[in-house]
Design a protein that fits this description.
single chain; alpha/beta; Rossmann fold; 5-stranded parallel beta sheet; two-stranded antiparallel ribbon; 11 helices; globular
């Protein structure tokens, strides 16, 4: 009895192993034809992804860290006299002028329209020839933006350029995706950046910490979707962000008026604010989804601009999610073309307003 009871399980296990091995072999044999059928598709996909670089068909890319240089107070700007390629959804060509601003074909002093802002103002993702500033040849437009800039950087540049703004139209692209959040942060990753702080119930720009030296602390990149969802929900965070933004708008208005320039503020939505398929996810990230208002920041900036008598344009009324790349967050060629038409309207309204201003000498008495 004992030997029988011991042998039976051993044989059973051996049989199970043989069955399992048989099934595995059968599965492997059956999968071979499928793998043979799929192999060409895998090879084509891999070749499409990697072959251009293997064959050196794609241009050599310039790392962003090599394209930028340290600038006191502001933090950084692209290097002057560059010509190369940066990475977005695909490599795109770019140049910088003798001062380090995007597109060497036009300088600040020759321009009619100056566009301040972040990577949207820089024109991330499109070649120089498709940049918004090139789409209105009758208006000499100059891009004055850089990747990673907040509203604070734009204000500092307006103040530093001073008299060079005289007689020009200034358009300020304010990206709702992270600008209002980044205004309040002293760093961009490990890079030190100017920011606004509230001291004794008054806002001020802080720049004393800005230097070439990186901050030596680990930090995960901020979840801008989460931050945007919170700022689109009424409460203390959105109130504080809009209060800081209002301070910066007022300071920019003062700088432009002092220089004799006209300022227009143009808000730039994040793609998922425009895409009905992505908007529910953004809403779900809000701490109070029932109170989420995708237009809250637009409404807040518009109200501040109205109080300060600054012309305001919401690009959410002019763009769709199809004007953005699917992976990279920036505008496609089509998006740049649409933005160029908005800028042309802004400039045209300025000229029309100037034509309506009566000349005091024409109506002066004898």
């Amino acid at each position: 009895m004992g030997s029988t009871s011991t042998a039976a399980p051993t044989g059973s296990r051996r049989t199970d192993r043989l069955r399992t091995s048989g099934r595995t072999l059968l599965t492997t044999l059956l999968s071979v034809p499928a793998a043979l059928v799929a192999a060409p598709f895998w090879l084509v996909a891999a070749a499409t992804r990697h072959l251009p670089r293997w064959l050196r068909l794609e241009p050599p890319l310039t790392p962003w860290t090599d394209a930028m240089q340290y600038v006191p107070v502001v933090g950084w700007r692209t290097r002057p006299d560059l010509s190369g390629f940066l990475e977005a959804d695909h490599p795109f060509s770019f140049t910088t002028d003798s001062e380090g601003w995007r597109d060497a074909s036009t300088g600040i002093d020759d321009a009619d329209l100056l566009v301040f802002g972040d990577s949207f103002a820089f024109g991330q993702g499109v070649d120089d020839e498709h940049l918004y500033s090139r789409q209105t040849p009758e208006i000499r437009t100059k891009a004055l933006g850089s990747n990673g800039y907040s509203m604070v950087h734009a204000v500092l540049w307006m103040e530093q350029l001073g008299e060079r703004l005289a007689g020009k139209q200034v358009a300020w692209l304010v990206y709702l995706g992270n600008d209002l959040y980044d205004n309040l942060r002293p760093n961009y990753g490990r890079y030190r950046v100017p920011f606004v702080a509230e001291r004794e119930q008054r806002w001020e720009i802080v720049t004393a910490h800005v230097s070439e030296q990186q901050w030596e602390f680990p930090e995960a990149p901020p979840g801008y979707q989460d931050e945007l969802a919170r700022l689109c929900t009424p409460g203390q965070e959105s109130d504080r962000a809009l209060s800081a933004a209002t301070y910066l708008l007022e300071r920019a208005q003062h700088a432009c008026r002092a220089a004799g320039a006209d300022l227009t503020v143009i808000t730039v939505p994040r793609r998922d604010q425009l895409d009905p398929r992505l908007l529910p996810e953004l809403r779900a990230r809000s701490p109070e989804p029932d109170r989420f208002n995708v237009d809250l920041l637009d409404e807040g900036v518009r109200e501040a601009c109205t109080t300060l008598d600054i012309p305001f344009v919401a690009l959410a009324q002019h763009l769709s999610h199809r004007d953005y790349f699917k992976v990279d967050i920036h505008w496609t060629r089509r998006g740049n073309a649409r933005v160029s038409r908005v800028l042309a309207d802004v400039y045209g309204q300025r000229l029309a307003a100037a034509d309506r201003v009566p000349d005091p000498e024409e109506h002066a008495g004898p």
